[in-house]
């Protein structure tokens, strides 16, 4: 560095440049998407579920998130669109039949995928795009599913009313709306999220059980009020009440007829004129100066 002829400095030695930022390894990112749970970051273990955005989760992690939304820290950003277990589908995955260890070296191969397509036996490791059928949960590679669907005759599709049959379990599905891509690209995931928001906005509002019970109670009370406000009178009851009133009036008349004049003078008829105060000794108030 002293220009003595011993070394020739280069620009890299004389000029300090900014270090390049660390770039994420795409291979590790892809492996993390297909081999680990998107929520708990643990290896995928059956039962494995997927949401409407195609992300892969361990079912126990989703249950833990639904019980405690803050259990995973960033869970709201990852799966905030999951409201209940109805928003996820349990996948029917096919285990990889390839051996987990190499025969010669007995070393675990980290690139070995845990699941494969049951039609083409292609590994589910992110190299080949995979999808699952929403109606049954069976997962296939898109190439294998297209090959099977293209092999069906048009007559069969007409008779099935544009419905196809799952090549693994035979369940019916709509090829235009029931196929969900697993781990889509960022642009496709954004589009799928927008479609999900639109579908939920069009859903009718569900009434809670308490509100339904209150409405039923209100309807029952209204019926009771209307029934009590206009009761039906039985003619036999009205005639019986009239006879009772007449008999009581006759007994009262007989009782008054048997009274003496002194006792009758204590009672006054309603139609009789009012007596002046002091007209009767019995009604006069006591006064010592009277």
UniProtKB/TrEMBL annotation:
Q: Which InterPro entries does this one have?
A: Rtf2 (IPR006735), Rtf2_RING-finger (IPR027799)
Q: Region Disordered: list its residue ranges.
A: 1-26, 199-279
One GO CC term of this entry?
nucleus
**Stored Pfam families:** Rtf2 (PF04641)
Q: Name one GO biological process term.
A: DNA replication termination
The residue ranges flagged as biased composition, category Polar residues, are 230-249
Q: Which CDD domains does the record cross-reference, listed alphabetically?
A: RING-like_Rtf2
**Comp. bias intervals (Basic and acidic residues):** 9-25, 266-278
**Source organism superkingdom:** Eukaryota
**Family indicated by similarity:** Belongs to the rtf2 family.
Q: By what name is this protein known?
A: DUF602-domain-containing protein
User: What is the organism field in this record?
Assistant: Pterulicium gracile
Lineage, highest ranks first: Eukaryota, Fungi, Dikarya, Basidiomycota, Agaricomycotina
